[in-house]
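Support reply, case 0932

Customer input (verbatim):
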Amino acid sequence: MLRRISLLISMVGIVAATSAASAAERFDSAYTKLKLDDCMMTSVPSQEGTDGGSWLCEGYRKIPVSVSEGDLRMFVSFGDNAANEMAASQTLSGFNSVNETLEWRLVESGGRQPFATILRWFVQTGEGGTDQVLIVTRLGLGATCQVARINATRTPDANARAREIADTRARAFQCGVDDLIRVNMTE
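Our regenerated output:
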């Protein structure tokens, strides 16, 4: 019994130390523009009209940003291997487009390293309206994928919520294993 109590106290100490270390981390944001007219077109729209083309843009610290459009839906991925990352195949079910402002979440330790992005998407709803959705994407070679979708139309302080999810969940998120976090999403 004493051994169990000692083990439990040790585990609580480890969790407390981990939480304190996480709380001590400092996060910040950097912003870049995602203007397709300023990006290099890597494939032209198809003749059938279902493929709107692909672009390669420059992001924070020259990180490649891959944007493609197909069947009136956008796909956004990041990094030197962006086209082969999970994010390159992730989109919303409704017709959509992306905003021009891309937020990069940075951890101060290690020289302001980006670990996630937040991008606002505009999605047509079944009712003929448009919802705004913030998508948090994890960055990492072989591990770039969407972490969360926050319906900004229905979520008060959606930007703060997206940052909180990015800062606390993105780095440990396992692409293809962990469930996508959905906040006030109907799809």
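We compared this against your earlier run and they match. Two observations from our side: Confidence is low (pLDDT under 50) at residues 1-21. The first strand starts at residue 27 and ends at 33. Please reopen the case if you see a mismatch on your end.
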